[in-house]
Design brief:
The complex is a heterodimer of chains A (about 425) and B (about 300). Chain A has about 425 residues and is α+β, with helices and mostly antiparallel strands. Chain A has two domains: about 170 residues, Chloramphenicol Acetyltransferase; about 260 residues, 2-Layer Sandwich (Chloramphenicol Acetyltransferase), CATH 3.30.559. Chain A has twelve helices and 14 strands. In chain A, about 45% of the residues are buried. The mean pLDDT of chain A is about 95. Chain B has about 300 residues and is an all-alpha fold. Among the domains of chain B are: about 70 residues, no CATH class; about 90 residues. In chain B, α2 crosses α3, α4 runs antiparallel to α5 and α6 packs antiparallel against α7. The N terminus of chain B is likely disordered. Classes of the chains: A alpha+beta (about 425), B mainly alpha (about 300). At the A-B interface, α7 and α9 of A face α1 and α2 of B.
Chain lengths: ~425, ~300
C-alpha cells in the first residue's frame, strides 16, 4: 500500500488539541543553543528515522463529519529540516518559532538550524516547532533527547542503540496502573472539571490587526533558581509549589485584584505518572491535563500565599485519580457523536483556562548534547495563545529556569508580559527571603 | 543527611526533620485520644486523616515562621479544639448513619417480602382456582404496593429533611401506580365502563396532593397552585360527571354544567379578594399606628 494511503486513528487528545485551535496556534516550541557546528547529514538521517518511527509526524489531519483521521503523507527531509547561516541566529530562530504548521500539512514538525559565526567558532541554534496534536511538552522532551542520543550513536555507528519509542497513542494508557475497583472508578470519572469559579484574565491589550505570534521569555539566573530550590526544600514544598505561589502574588498585583479576591491558576499535570513505565511503551502523544489551583485570598505575606497554594495543591496531589477527571466524558462525547457535533458539545462545556502554568521541569543537559557541540541554553515553550488566554511555560536547563509565554499580540503585549516577569522576579526575591 | 537503602545519601530539610520529630508525638497523642471511641475502621481512617491534617498544619506553621518544635506541637494540638467532644460527635454520627442504613435495609427487605408474599398468594390462588387471569393482578398489585411502600418510607424521611422536590416526585409516582392499579381492577375485574376515567381523576389527584405539599412546606407558589388545582379538579369533575351521566342516560349536564369549569377562576377571585382585604386591613393598622406616633410628638416627655 502506498504510504499516502495509510491512515492513522485520530486519538482523543489529537481531537481535543484540534478543538483548541480556537484558543491557541497548536504549536509547541523548542530552542536549543550550542557552541559548535552540527553535522547536518547525520542530523537529517536521525530526523528521518525519528519521523518514520512516529508516523503521525508525517501525516496530515483530515476532518470529516463523522470522524477525523491522520493520513500518512509522502515527504522529504527538506519539508522538515532547514539549515541556514545567519547574522543573528537567536533572532532568526525566534522568527522561525513564531510560525505555525497547518494541520493538513504533509509534515507536523519543522526544525531549523541557524548557524552564526562567532569569532573563530560557530554558534548553532536549533529551533523546532511541532503540532501539539502530535505530542505534548513531556514527549517533546523525550523526542529531542532521543534525537540527540541517536545523532551521537549514529556518529559512533552504534546502530543497535538507536531507537525511538513507538506504539499506542491512545489516551486510555493512563489507566494502565489501575485495576479492580480503582480502574472502574477511574473510568467513571465523568465530572467536568474545566469549569472555573474565577474569571480573572491576564491584562493583555485589546486585539489588533497587527498582532502576531511572539514569545516573551525571562531567564531566572542560576543563583536565584538555586536559592529558590533551597528555600522550597527547607519549607518541604516542591519547586512547582514555590513557583505557583510566586505566580499567584505576581498575578494578584498585575491583574489589580483585591487581597480578598479569589484567583484560579491552572497547572499542567503530566498524566504519564499513571502509565506503566511512564509511557515509555507508547507512542509520541499528549498526556497532559490541568488542575485548577485556587486561592480564596492573596494572603498578607508570601508565607501566607505559600500556605494557600499548597493547601490547594495538596487536595489534588493526594487524589490518586489526579488529572483523570473528565477523560471518560470526552471519550463518551467523541464516541457517541459525529465529530462536528462532538466538537460543538465539548466546546460548549469546556472552559479553557484563562491563566495557566505549564512546568515541564528539567531538560537534562547530559541528554541534549550533540557530539562535539556544547549546549549553552535552551527552553521549551507552549502554544501561542490567543487573547485573553495566558500560559507561562517553565523549563529548567543548566541550572537556569526559563519562563516564557507565547502570545499572538502586539509590542504592548510584550511590555505587559515583561511587566509580569518583573513581578515574578520581585516575588521570587521575596520568596528567597523567607 | 539521611541514609538511603543503597548507601546513597539524600539531604533532609529542616522542615522534614521537624516532621519526623513531630510525627511520633502526634501519633502518640492520637492513639491516646482515639481510645475513647470504639476501634472501628472508620475511626482508624479518621485518626489517619487527622494525622495528615496535623502534619499539614505543622508545615504551614513552619512556613509562617514558627521554628520551635514544641510550640508547633502545642499550636497544632490546641487547634484541634475539644477532641473529646469531636470524637464523641463522630461516634454518634456514625451510629446514626448505621441506624439509617439498617432501617433502609429493613424497609427494602419488607418491600421485597411483601412482593414475594403476594407472588406466592398469586401462585396459590391461581393453582387452586385454575384462574391465572385476572389473578395476575395480585402480582402486579404486590409489586406496585412494594414499590409504593418503599417510596412512602422515603417520603416520610424526606419530609423530615424538608426536601420538597423529591417528595413531590415520589408522591406523584405513588399516585400514578395506585391509579394504574385501580384502573386495572375496574377494567379487568369489574369491567366497569369508562374505567379509563381513573386517569382523569389521577391528574386532579396528583395536582391536589402537590398543592397540599406546597402548603405543608409554605412554598411561595402555593397560592398560584391552589386555583390551578381548583380549575383542574373542576374541569375533570365536569368531564367525568358529563361522560358518566351521558353514558348511563341519567342526564346530560354538559349545559349548564360547564359553569363548573369556572371553579378555578372563582377560587382565584376569592384569593385576590382576600388578599386585597388583608392588605387594606394592614394599611388601616399602619395609618392608625402612624397617627398614634404623631400624637406622641405633641404629648410625649422625656421625664
Amino acid at each position: 500500500m502506498p504510504v499516502s494511503q495509510k491512515r492513522l486513528k485520530a486519538e482523543m487528545w489529537d481531537r481535543m488539541q484540534f478543538l483548541f485551535r480556537n484558543y491557541y496556534d497548536r504549536m509547541v516550541h523548542l530552542k536549543l543553543v550550542y557552541d559548535g557546528k552540527l553535522d547536518v547529514d547525520t542530523l537529517k538521517q536521525v530526523i528521518v528515522y525519528a519521523v518514520e518511527r512516529a508516523p503521525v509526524l508525517h501525516s496530515s489531519f483530515n476532518t470529516t463529519v463523522l470522524e477525523p483521521y491522520w493520513q500518512q503523507e509522502n515527504y522529504t527531509i527538506d519539508d522538515i529540516l532547514t539549515v541556514s547561516e545567519s547574522d543573528d541566529a537567536d533572532r532568526d530562530a525566534d522568527v522561525f518559532l513564531s510560525g505555525t504548521i497547518p494541520y493538513d500539512n504533509n509534515v507536523q514538525i519543522k526544525i531549523s538550524v541557524f548557524e552564526q559565526r562567532v569569532g573563530e567558532g560557530v554558534k548553532s541554534v536549533l529551533a523546532l516547532r511541532v503540532n501539539h496534536m502530535c505530542m505534548d511538552g513531556g514527549d517533546l522532551k523525550y523526542f529531542i533527547a532521543t534525537l540527540c542520543e541517536n545523532y551521537n550513536r549514529l556518529k559512533h555507528k552504534d546502530y543497535d542503540a538507536i531507537g525511538m519509542k513507538s506504539g499506542s497513542r491512545s489516551f486510555d494508557q493512563v489507566y494502565s496502573k489501575f485495576e479492580g475497583e480503582d480502574l472502574k472508578h477511574a473510568r467513571g470519572l465523568y465530572k467536568n472539571v474545566s469549569k472555573s469559579k474565577d474569571h480573572v484574565a491576564f491584562p493583555w491589550t485589546e486585539g489588533k490587526e497587527e498582532d502576531c505570534n511572539r514569545i516573551v521569555k525571562r531567564v531566572i539566573a542560576e543563583e536565584d533558581f538555586s536559592a529558590m530550590r533551597g528555600v522550597a526544600k527547607r519549607l518541604g514544598i516542591t519547586v512547582n509549589d514555590a513557583l505557583m505561589a510566586i505566580t499567584f502574588r505576581a498575578l494578584y498585583e498585575l491583574c489589580g485584584l483585591k487581597d480578598d479576591d479569589s484567583l484560579t491558576v491552572s497547572c499542567a499535570i503530566d498524566l504519564r505518572k499513571h502509565i506503566e513505565e511512564g509511557g515509555a511503551n507508547g507512542g509520541l502523544t499528549n498526556h497532559t491535563a490541568w488542575l485548577a489551583c485556587r486561592t480564596l485570598e492573596r494572603g498578607q505575606t508570601m508565607e501566607d500565599t505559600v500556605v494557600n497554594v499548597i493547601r490547594s495543591m495538596k487536595t489534588f496531589k493526594r487524589d490518586k485519580f489526579m488529572g483523570l477527571y473528565s477523560l471518560p466524558l470526552l471519550k463518551l462525547a467523541y464516541t457517541i457523536f459525529p465529530h462536528d457535533i462532538a466538537e460543538f458539545a465539548i466546546k460548549k462545556g469546556y472552559d479553557n483556562p484563562l491563566l495557566a502554568v505549564s512546568n515541564m521541569g528539567l531538560l537534562d543537559d547530559r541528554r541534549l548534547q550533540f557530539d562535539g557541540l556544547t549546549l549553552k541554553d535552551g527552553f521549551i515553550s507552549g502554544a501561542t495563545k490567543y487573547k485573553p488566554f495566558f500560559l507561562m511555560s517553565v523549563t529548567t536547563l543548566l541550572g537556569r529556569m526559563t519562563l516564557s509565554t507565547a502570545i499572538r499580540g502586539s509590542e504592548e503585549d510584550v511590555a505587559v508580559a515583561n511587566r509580569y516577569f518583573d513581578l515574578i522576579e520581585k516575588y521570587l526575591a521575596e520568596f528567597i527571603a523567607i | 543527611m539521611a541514609e538511603l537503602g543503597g548507601g546513597q545519601t539524600a539531604p533532609v530539610s529542616e522542615q522534614e526533620l521537624l516532621q519526623q520529630k513531630l510525627k511520633p508525638m502526634y501519633k502518640q497523642y492520637l492513639e491516646g485520644a482515639f481510645r475513647q471511641i470504639a476501634p472501628t475502621k472508620d475511626a482508624m481512617e479518621l485518626r489517619k486523616q487527622t494525622l495528615v491534617d496535623m502534619l499539614d498544619r505543622s508545615q504551614e506553621l513552619y512556613i509562617r515562621g514558627i521554628r520551635d518544635c514544641d510550640l508547633i506541637y502545642k499550636t497544632v494540638i490546641d487547634g484541634l479544639g475539644d477532641m473529646e467532644s469531636r470524637l464523641a460527635e463522630f461516634e454518634t454520627r456514625k451510629d446514626k448513619s448505621k441506624n439509617l442504613k439498617r432501617r433502609l435495609s429493613f424497609d427494602a427487605i419488607v418491600a421485597i417480602a411483601l412482593t414475594a408474599l403476594l407472588a406466592i398468594v398469586y401462585v396459590i390462588v391461581g393453582a387452586m382456582t385454575g384462574r391465572w387471569h385476572p389473578t395476575w393482578l395480585i402480582m402486579v398489585g404486590g409489586i406496585f404496593a412494594g414499590g409504593s411502600f418503599v417510596m412512602a418510607v422515603g417520603v416520610l424521611k424526606l419530609l423530615k429533611k424538608r426536601k420538597i422536590l423529591p417528595v413531590r416526585i415520589l408522591v406523584a409516582i405513588i399516585e400514578t401506580l395506585a391509579s394504574v392499579f385501580i384502573f386495572l381492577l375496574l377494567q379487568i375485574v369489574f369491567s366497569v365502563k369508562g374505567s379509563w376515567m381513573t386517569f382523569l381523576a389521577m391528574v386532579a389527584l396528583i395536582v391536589g396532593a402537590d398543592t397540599v405539599i406546597s402548603f405543608m412546606f409554605s412554598s411561595k407558589a402555593r397560592w398560584i397552585e391552589l386555583p390551578i388545582f381548583a380549575e383542574i379538579f373542576c374541569v375533570m369533575l365536569y368531564v367525568i360527571l358529563g361522560i358518566s351521566l351521558s353514558m348511563t342516560g341519567i342526564a346530560s349536564i354538559w349545559h349548564p354544567g360547564w359553569i363548573l369549569c369556572l371553579g378555578g377562576v372563582i377560587v382565584a377571585m376569592i384569593e385576590i379578594s382576600v388578599a386585597v382585604a388583608i392588605r387594606r386591613k394592614r394599611d388601616g393598622q399602619k395609618i392608625a399606628s402612624e397617627k398614634e406616633t404623631d400624637e406622641k410628638y405633641w404629648t410625649s416627655w422625656d421625664d
